[in-house]
Amino acid sequence: MAVSAFNQGSLYQTSYSNNQTSTLFAYINPNKIQPVEIYQSPKLSNFQNKVSSLGLTPYFENKLTFVDPIDNLPLNFRNDKAALKAHQTNSAEVNQSIQELIKDESSPETIRNLIAENLPQILEKFNSAPYSPKNFNDLHGYGKYLLTGSDNQGFPFCIHIFSIGPNQETPPHDHIGRCVSLIKKGQVREILYVKDSSVSPALTVVDERERFTNDVVAVGPEEEFDIHKISVDKNSKQNAILTHLYYGINGVSKKQESSVNKIYSNN
Fold first, then answer.
1. Residue 103: CA atoms inside 13 Å, Cβ hemisphere, count?
2. How far apart are CA 187 and CA 173, in angstroms?
3. What values do phi and psi take at 240, rounded to 5?
4. Buried-most residue among 18, 228, 237, 238 (CB within 10 A)?
5. Torsion of CA 94, 95, 100, 103, to 10 degrees
6. Do the beta carbons of residue 179 and residue 246 sit within 8 Å?
7. pTM for this one?
8. Contact status, residue 248 vs residue 255, Cβ threshold 8 Å
9. Are the CB atoms for 174 and 257 separated by under 8 Å?
10. pLDDT tens digits along 162-199
11. pLDDT (tens digit per residue) in 55-91
12. What are the residues facing 188 on neighbouring strands?
C-alpha cells in the first residue's frame, strides 16, 4: 500500500492507494494551529475508532481512479482535435460528477449502484455534438466511444457513448453484466427477446418499446430482460445518442472492452 502526504495551505491529507482506489484519511483537531492532522492506518475502521476516541471530526473521502479511454477510441476520432477535446471535456466532467457523488461512500458495489441511479444527473452537462456514426451507409455502422471506466476495487464499470444514425441498428445481443441505458438525444426503438430454449439460438420477440430523450432502462442477466436490439427509424432527422453504463468491465483491459456476451442472428 502506497502512502503519500501533501500540503494544501493549512490542510494536510494522507492518501492511501490500494487496487486503483485512493482514500484520504485525516482528522480535524481545532486545538491545533494546523487543524487537520494525519492519521496513518491501513484500515478505515482503525481511523474511525481513533477519531471517535478523541471526540474529533472525521475527514474521509473516497476517490476512484479512472481509465484513460483514448486508446479505445476510433482512430479517425482521435485525429479530430476538436472532437477529441470535446470528448475529453465530457470525460473529465463525468469523472468529477462521479467523484462528488461517491465521496462519502466506501462500498465499491454501492458506488457502482449510485452511479446507475444517478446517471442522468452525472451526464447533465454532456455535449453530444462530437459523436457520429462510424459509417452511415452500414446497417451496423453506428459509432461507439468509451467515455470513462474504473476497476472500482473489483467491481468494474464503464460508460460508452453510442451514436446510431437513421436506418441503423445493433444486432440482437445479450450482456455479461448489467447494462443501464440512457437516451441523451433522439428516439430509438428497442426490441426485447427471450431464447426459445436453453439449447436453441432462436429468439422470440416479447416486447417492443419506443424510447425518447432522458429515458433510462436496465437490461442484463439479473434483469427482467437481457437480449435486445436498438434501432433508429430510417425517416429520423437526427442521430440518436445513447449512454450505456456497463457492470463488469472497465472498458480497456483485455476481455473488458465490450459487455456483449453473445450476438444473435437478426430476427
1. 11
2. 20
3. -95, 135
4. 228
5. 150
6. yes
7. 0.78
8. no
9. no
10. 999 999 999 999 999 999 999 999 999 999 999 987 76
11. 555 444 567 889 999 999 999 999 999 999 999 999 9
12. 211
